[in-house]
Input
Amino acid sequence: MNRKLLWLVQRWIVLLVLVGVWELAARRAGSIWFPPPTKIIDQGIELWFSGPDTAAAWTDDILPSLARTLGGWLISVAIGIIVGTALGRSRHGMEYVGPLFAFMRAIPPVMLVPVFIVLFGLYTEMKLAVIVFGTVWPILLNTVDGVRTVDSVQTDTARSFRTPRHRWIGSVVLPAALPKIFAGLRVSMSIAVLLMVVSELVGKTSGIGNKLVSAQRQFDFTIMWAWIVLLGILGYGLNALLLVAERHMLRWQPSRHTQRLQAGG
Output
């Protein structure tokens, strides 16, 4: 227990020191561009918990943004794992689509916002399209790589027992590929939060990105920083949930069990 507490303190002490330095430097400089963290926290509490527009902030901005982020990310997860599994098990599939994927990955999703606006308008579909296009690649390519690492002994054993293909994929291939799939999931989640903000900067709409740019245009930098801090909290929380799910689903791996024992868990 003491070791866990020490690990938590070591993990957070750098952040706390940096916040303290920021507080002192901001109060000393008195700049409107970089308000002290205490003012940002007070503004955030008023915005989301105690102010007159608290309910509207949650129902019109925070929850819709979170729904778009998770919705686009989940669509990417489905596409990436299904297509990645099919290509990973195909002998020549990536040889045909690999150059196309490399070309499409090189296109910044932000540059396609005008295209998606033409196709879908300034609606949720446009925002989901931006998120899906940017987040599908880490999942798809990591799935391809993970599926290809399945042990040949496992493959030969499944064939000798005439295991149905769908059962073999679900019980052998995907579990073996999970470590690399989860690596892609974490990367794509961070990208999804970023692209959610970018997609909400366009047009008169709701969402965290819209509120952030609105505060910037009104030169209300304390509110702007409050929304930025909220984005960091949301990104950290979503990544933490993914790490918990990863540890739960990969607890069968011997290396992870050893690491947990060494950590005293």
